[in-house]
């Protein structure tokens, strides 16, 4: 019984640290991609990911790693409960942090069309043109507002007027990317919750063992 509780705890601990690694890798790859050259394939992804809470995600991952280190003394000292409790509270803080990051991304999806209009407006004509080619569209709301950038897709005013504005395809792309990210993020929060439950079980287990050890010591049986 005791081992099962400990193994479950260690399993969730492993998932917890893997979640932290995933957060860190995604944030760092995004950082790197933003410094690289934009092309047709990555322009939409990069533009959207650059709007995300990248720094918060990196800080979150660092919190997860520090919290993970706190579990080592509680495994090394199998009867200790103080470290384990501190570890539990730290996991709770990480979970809240990750939840807030996820909610932040989720709130953006509620307001995508208006947010993207600002993002679009802040881009150079090169980037706008890449987006037009990526989504086969001209201008943001429509070809005239704001005016399209002449390129391979929007070759003339007439052609541009017959193509849709980028708002439709760009915002649905943004919404599916954001949903994927916040779903993964909430998945990590769920792992944190399981880990907290695992810690609670292990604490209870250790408390009971301590009690039995005391009783055994009093009655003169078993190890002290
Ligand atoms: C383009 O969009 C703007 C803003 O939504 C609107 O005022 C304008 O009438 C539209 N033009 C065309 C040709 O649909």
TrEMBL record:
Its main location: membrane. The chain crosses the membrane at residues 12-34, 54-76, 88-107, 180-203. It is found in: Membrane. It holds the Pfam family Tetraspanin. Keywords: Membrane, Transmembrane, Transmembrane helix. GO terms for cellular component: membrane. The keyword Transmembrane helix applies. It is a multi-pass membrane protein. The keyword Nucleus does not apply. This is Tetraspanin. It comes from Endocarpon pusillum (strain Z07020 / HMAS-L-300199). The lineage of its organism: Eukaryota, Fungi, Dikarya, Ascomycota, Pezizomycotina.
